[in-house]
Amino acid sequence: MGRPSARDQVLDAYQEILIADGVAAVTLEAVAARAGVSKGGLLYHFGSKDALLDGLVERLLHLTEADIARAHEAPEGPLRYYLSTSVTDADMGKPAHRATIAALRLLGTDPKISTTMIEIDRRWSELLAAHLKDPAVVQVAALLGDGLYLRATLGEKTPEDFLRRLPDMLEQLDQ
Amino acid sequence: MGRPSARDQVLDAYQEILIADGVAAVTLEAVAARAGVSKGGLLYHFGSKDALLDGLVERLLHLTEADIARAHEAPEGPLRYYLSTSVTDADMGKPAHRATIAALRLLGTDPKISTTMIEIDRRWSELLAAHLKDPAVVQVAALLGDGLYLRATLGEKTPEDFLRRLPDMLEQLDQ
DNA sequence: GTCTATACTAAGATAGAC
DNA sequence: GTCTATCTTAGTATAGAC
Fold it and tell me: For chain B, what is the total number of helices (H) and then of strands (E)?
């Protein structure tokens, strides 16, 4: 693992401020402070605020790829993996999850966010399609994932017991 | 109907810029220009940028209330009304819909947006709960609505034929 | 109720030392 | 690779005329 590079620490700080305090709180100064570097130091790694966003998008894409690979192998199957992954408190610490929530905070600010989220949706749907019969159920599952992420971004938690029932309901629908 | 007040025109401009160009494009100057008034004129109606956001939230709450009242009477039933309402191209012009998309653009910028969206979710769920047997299906329906709104915000359109099947699937699940 | 002019501030970015 | 100092601009908000 090794200790994180300064670059990664900056990206972490960016992400965490985004999640905790919202887009308005993300100033170069605040990010630098949280990462333990100066504004100049930060700008060495990311030449502009926009570069910071690009960095987050890139990270999100990588983490998602890794997550989908894991879903492929998951003993409980991709559907359960996908839906639980989205939101449980236990998973809130999951890197892919945090990066997604952070990115969603930037929704209105840059079109790159939208295209990235659409792309991620597409990849998960691809995986789900390979494991469900009915394409409509795939759509439902993907849509539910999106709903869960929106709620997580709103700070609303979805009841655990409902989350446990969810995959069963979808499988019933897939008959 | 009467012609819209200057105040309303300002709010319209704010909303439309939000939807079309995102949060960064929303400057007092841009909003004023689009509303056909000067910066000073705008600030007479809304004393600050924050007041503009408050205005949108208030409008959204009113429109939602009216929409829910309509859903109550809808011949196709609240479930169908809720799900179609969310996203069809035909409904894109619907005031409640546009206000919602605009508000979602502001997600990361102010906690008021989150609390408002949660409140709106709650009200729709209340209505749906009165017309479905299984509380879990109510949750699913509400979550799907959220997912549809997130996708609309992303600019991704959901296939019409899938949308038509959706309520039937949920009713099947509710047996 | 709306306009013009202007003050003020915050924040992004550059330059150059270390 | 990181820091301090500084420049620059954009954008919010105020004041006061009409």
Answer: 9, 0
The residue behind tokens 């295209």 is: A115
- Please list, in sequence order, all residues whose beta carbon lies within 8 angstroms of the beta carbon of residue B160, skipping any fewer than 6 positions away: B88
Domain that holds residue A95: 75-173
- Comparing CA positions, the residue from A145, A9, A12, A140 lying closest to residue A67 is A145
Within a domain: residue B21?
no
B164 within some domain: yes
Residues with CB under 7 A from strand D: A 6, 32, 37-45; B 24, 26-29, 39-40, 43, 47-50
Query: pLDDT averaged over chain A?
Result: 94
Domain tally, chain A: 1
Q: Indicate the pLDDT class of residue B90, thresholds 50, 70 and 90.
A: low
Chain B positions in Cβ-Cβ contact with residue A150 (cut-off 8 Å): 146-147, 149-150
- Is B48 among the domain residues? no
Of A83-97, A161-175, B3-17, the poorest mean pLDDT is in A83-97
Dig out the tokens for A163 from the structure: 């989350």
Q: Which of B149, B109, B92 is nearest to B22 (CA)?
A: B109
> B86 falls in which pLDDT band (50, 70, 90)?
low
Report, as an integer, the average pLDDT of A140-168. Answer: 94
Please indicate, yes or no, if residue B118 is contained in any of the structural domains: yes
Contact criterion met (CB below 8 Å) for A102 and A56: yes
Res B3 pLDDT > 90: no
